[in-house]
Batch of 4 targets.
Target 1
Amino acid sequence: MPVNPYNKYIKQYQTSNITTATPEKLMILLFDGAIQFLQKAKVAIAEKDLKERSANIESARKILRELMRTIDLENGNDVSKRLFRLYNRMAMKLIKANVQRSAGLIDEVLEDFMNIRWGFQKAIEIQSGVTTVEEAMKEQSEKNDVPDNKGEDNAG
């Protein structure tokens, strides 16, 4: 397989992006990384690629462990403790997903990651004045109002 001649520059850009990122941006990058690893793990499950599945799930678990380490449980509030427990449940689901080769469990963790990422992104936007709490709450409400066809009676 030919080597991309731009790999060196891509790597430099990525390194620069990380080293110059704010702590808030680093959190978003961690969420994005975990989401990408879990999407790759789902593909690996479909392709029955044991090594790729395990490697990607383990990478997502490492990110979860790093996120857990950032929580100050001694000085934190109830939200901190709840977030820590959520991260822990997500990590346990990933262990189970790896053993059971379960794309469904990975989907559950993916949804959690995407929701938490959305919340962090909105908190950053509120803090920087890009949006307001009211606008974020309205967006969340609209997001939750989208019908998902679960439990609908399809009898016609």
Target 2
Amino acid sequence: MKSEKLLAELNRIRADLDKDPSDIEWFTLHHVFCFISYQQGAFQKYLDEVIKPGDEIPED
């Protein structure tokens, strides 16, 4: 599974919320998205290690 697919979904979820730094849900999603984006190589390595064949979500 490519990290870009999960990052795109995380960004979509984040965009569904009003940008409000005082809202813990938006604040959390925003900073998790930023951190994972900056560490995308490490995130891809993690996905490669933990997601086994057949565990992936089917493509649309």
Target 3
Amino acid sequence: MEGSVRKRGEKWYYSFEAAKIDGKRQRIERVGGLTKPEAEAALRKAITDYENGESIDLSNISVSDYFDYWYENYVKKNLKYNTQINYLNVIKKYIKPEIGKLKLKSLGPAKLQELVNELPDMGLAKHTVEIIVTVLKGALKKAVYPWQLIKSNPMQYIEMPKYDQYNKKTKEKLKVNTIEDYKKILGFVGPENSFYIPLLLGFHTGMRRGEVCGLTWDCVNLEEKTLKVNKTIINTYGGWQIGTPKTQSSYREISFGETLYRELKTHRKHQLEHKMFYQAEYQDSNFVCTKENGKLVTPNSIKWSCTNIQRKLGIDFNFHSLRHTHATLLMESGAKIKAIQERLGHSRASTTTDTYSHLTKKMQQETVDIFEERISK
């Protein structure tokens, strides 16, 4: 059995491959000491103990080292890339600075509740606090089982801090744009711009940025005017890669209208013309959203286009604005919540209603009108 050592911060860590569980690779990583020789010696002993069936002593592991271990051995092996990055950010910014020096076995509900209560005072939104709580709960749950480092999860006793119930999402906070704003953006971008088709897809379908970039022609049925969402493009430090949709509900089929149909049909024709013009220099693929030379339109290039639009036109806009605008327009027009939920790929209808139902004055007025009509009979 082989292992390795590496320096992280001021400490040296050792790691080695353990036996597979349910066919999945397991890697054990621990603090080995302050120097490389100490870590190498600790590695040799740990491998010997492991091969002899002896347990590895983690009784005095710190919270900081434990979250490193959890991240390496669970998060990186089981969660999506974007989730890995979000969780690592939470660990570095909010967990290690506050409780990282404590011993894991001494971490109790009182200290954790104190940490959670302080998060809103840092100016963090409720959703951000919920993510931090999720990270804490998930990591400490693994410390109970299967790793048996603590007897119970202290996060089970923690309560979320109170937030102002009137501080609801508004059109401005969600960056819901008007039809007039969208038309200005569409005119500014123009059909020759590589952002034009992603812009149309976002507005007409409510697809997420990565879903738009990952759309391929085999998932577009121009005859039936439908498209399937079954993959996404994510940016990594090594470039872009194809990933799976956000949740199981994100796998979906979306119908679209005549406007998007005409634009996609024209775009497909232009792609074939560009392929003939560039020949060997054309980057051939089956992606819908490509540049003139066939190169993929990535989430990062879309982000740049949105920032440029916001700067040049002075409109509060990002790509997710198109999703919010799409949903709001449907809701204002009387579309059924279940249909909107499925179209957006929300796991629960409550997510759709909680996000959008209170946004529209038109819906509020319709509710009053229904009541007035009923009592006047």
Target 4
Amino acid sequence: MAERARASLLLVEDDANLGATLRERLASAGYRTTWARSLREARRELSMDRFGLVILDVALPDGSGFDLAGEVRAGWPGTGVVFLTAQGDPERRVHGLALGAEDYVVKPFHFDELVLRMENGLRRRRHLDAVPDPMDVGRARVHFGALKVEREGRTTALGAREAALLRFLASRRGAVVRRDEILDEVWPRDEYPTPRTVDNFVLKLRRIVEADPENPVILRTVWGVGYQLEMHGNG
């Protein structure tokens, strides 16, 4: 409960009954919760306070929650986003996660499951707050919030999931991180990722940060365990 009491949430929900119920139940669970009924109200609250997490509907009376999620990523990189919406088709779920959301929960939902997903998102944010942005990894300068990489005078886009994986490894820099830890921290459970998913994303990251991706010295494989981002790799 002490951990929850430190978490400040912004609930963005235009349904009066659901918003009031959620605010009451979240408060009972130990979260400090501010309720906004529109994008306009949400932007005002974000400008006045710092939140650990935004619980965000997609369909709002004055626009799309997707737009606000992009603003949160750019303007408040230490704040996580969990979508809570009736719009559950796969294309929208993928779009929401690609914007950098911690999770995407579809209505109707079970309150305890929502809390679990929120806590996972808050835990990931605590890890990420310890990682500078931008950060030099090998020969690349990685801008996590802006989802881009600068290397040898060129700028390339960085996928949201690639950025999340690299940032998580950076938060544990020097430690060996197991594949199952990576899956728990970086991928929502309903995407059904596998250890092979992690391996494929690591291969993508090596092409970004390693001078010789076939012989990595920065993002190392620890056979049978997982991966290690070296403290002092020179790329």
